[in-house]
């Protein structure tokens, strides 16, 4: 969970820098990509956790 929060923080910082400094607009795109990766990471992590709790009979 700490990795997810770190990735979201990095995405927000890159997004803010990308918006504030117009010549670094590519940082906004990188921030959005990092945010998407963080959400996918969280979804995979939660799906693996839910499978482990329900043993197969």
Give the integer mean of the pLDDT values.
82
Biggest sheet layout: none
Strand content is: under 5%
Tell me the overall shape.
rod-shaped
Description:
This protein is mostly helical. It has two helices and no strands. The longest helix has 28 residues. The two termini are 29 Å apart. 7% of the residues are buried.
Mind sketching the topology for me?
Layout lengths: L1 H19 L5 H28 L4
Helix pairs in contact: 1-2
Brief digest:
By secondary structure, the protein is mainly alpha-helical. The protein has helices at residues 2-20, 26-53.
Supply database-style keywords.
57 residues; mainly alpha; 82% helix; rod-shaped
């Amino acid at each position: 969970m700490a990795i997810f929060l770190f990735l979201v923080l990095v995405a927000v910082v890159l997004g803010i820098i990308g918006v504030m400094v117009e010549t670094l607009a590519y940082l906004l795109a990188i921030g959005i990509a990092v945010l998407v990766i963080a959400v996918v990471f969280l979804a995979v992590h939660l799906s693996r956790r839910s499978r482990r709790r329900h043993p197969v009979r």
